[in-house]
Amino acid sequence: MIKFFNVFQAVYETRSFSQAAEQLYISQPTVSVQIQQLEQTLGTPLFTRNHHGVSPTAAADLLYQEGLVLTDRWQELVDQVQHATKPHVTCRIGVSNTIAATQLPPIIAELPQTALQEFDCQLLLMNSAGIVDELVAHNLEFGFIEQPLTASGIARRAFFTDQLVHAGDPKRPLWLLREAGSGVRHYTDRYLAQHNLTPKQVMVVNNNDIIVRLLTQGIGQTIVSQNVLPQQVAYQSLGPQFTRQFYFLSRPLPPTSPLNQLAQLLQDQLTTESPQQR
C-alpha cells in the first residue's frame, strides 16, 4: 500500500500522470495501472481527467492529507526497527539564506550537547516559499523562514528582528535580485514598487553569499540584510518599514515522536537578539 501511496502522492502533487512517472522514474502506464488498482481497492475514483491534466476528487484530498500522516508514522517505525539498538530519527530542517548565515549556527551551538545524539539531521538551504511547500508535503520537519508565510496545519513562531538595507552603488544600473519565493525578494519587490522603480538591468542570484561577494567587488546594488554585509560594502538605511521578523515553522508530528522534544529545544534558543549580542 505504501508503494501505491507514493505513486498517488506524485500524481496528486504534479496533477499529471506523465510528470509523476518522470519523477518516480517509471513508465506512465505503470502509474496509470497503480492508480487504477488503488481506486479499486478503495472503491472510489481519485482523479478526473481534463485538458489541463488531472484533478483530484474529494476522496483524493482526504487520502493525501491523512496518508502523509500515516507514511510519517510508517517511516518512524521503519527507523526504529532498523536502528533497534541505537534508534536514530531523521530530521530535515529547511533554512533560508540569511538565517543560515546569521541565526542558525548560534541556535545549534547553544543546544545541549546530547540534544542531537538520536537524530540524523539534514540542513537544507531553500527559500521561504519552498520551505513552506516542503513542510506541507511532509518533506521537512522544521523550517526557518524570512517572510510571514504559513499554511494550514503549520505552526509558526516569530523570533529575531532583522533590518534590511539598500546596499551597493545606487548609481549602477544592475540590480542583484534573489529568486522569486525568497524572503529578501518579497521585500525587494515591495521596495521597487514603492519607489516606482523598474531596474534596467537585473541579475537573479539564488544565494546571499554570492550577492555579497559581488557587492564587495563593486558590482550592482540590492536589498539585503544588514547583518550579512562586510564593513567595506556601503549601504543606506530603509527605515522601520523594512524591519522584518524571522519565523520558526513546524508541522504536526506523532505525539510519541522524539522530534517534538527537539522542536521545543530549538524554540528555547530563539531570541530577538542579533548573533553579535549573544
Automatic annotation (TrEMBL):
Domain of life: Bacteria
Organism: Furfurilactobacillus curtus
Key words, A-Z: DNA-binding, Transcription, Transcription regulation
Positions of the HTH lysR-type domain: 1-57
PROSITE patterns: HTH_LYSR
Family: Belongs to the LysR transcriptional regulatory family.
Protein name per UniProt: LysR family transcriptional regulator
Family matches, as Gene3D superfamilies: 3.40.190.290, Winged helix-like DNA-binding domain superfamily/Winged helix DNA-binding domain (1.10.10.10)
